[in-house]
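Contributing new records

If you add data, match the layout below exactly. Sequence lines come first and carry their own label; structure lines follow with theirs. Keep one chain per record. Anything else will be rejected by the validation script.
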Amino acid sequence: MLRQLLSLRRLFLILGICLLVFTVSLPAFAADTYIRQYLRVTEPISLDLDEQGQTRQFSAEDLSAGKRLFEQHCLNCHVGGATLPDPTVSLSLADLHGATPPRDNINSLVAFLREPMTYDGSEETFWCRQVPESWMPHQDVENIAGFILRAAQKAPGWGTNNF
């Protein structure tokens, strides 16, 4: 009986150590494979915050969170960086830069998501829904923007017909 109790105690100790090791190393695995493999992000990266050259650091976990939000809220119209309602305008860097105003940095994408405008900036668009602060906090919207920009920079086929 005592031997079984000691064996059981040892088993719980080993399980506890394994759980501790897994929990401590969990943040290293929090980013999904797509972010690590296709967007090539394992360490924090800098993305343009505005036109003045300011940048913001995004971790792999930030971009993974942005990807999840993008999949939940944007994927119906933006599969692989394409824009299904208007296939002539994608989420490629060239198209983001060519918009009026340009949408090729974090702040401009956040502004667009808060108040979507047509590609030429002449009027509101109803293809994308507004993302007010009451619905999604600023950090989440920045993570979506960060995911879009990094995908436009690195993802094979992003914003093209070849995704």
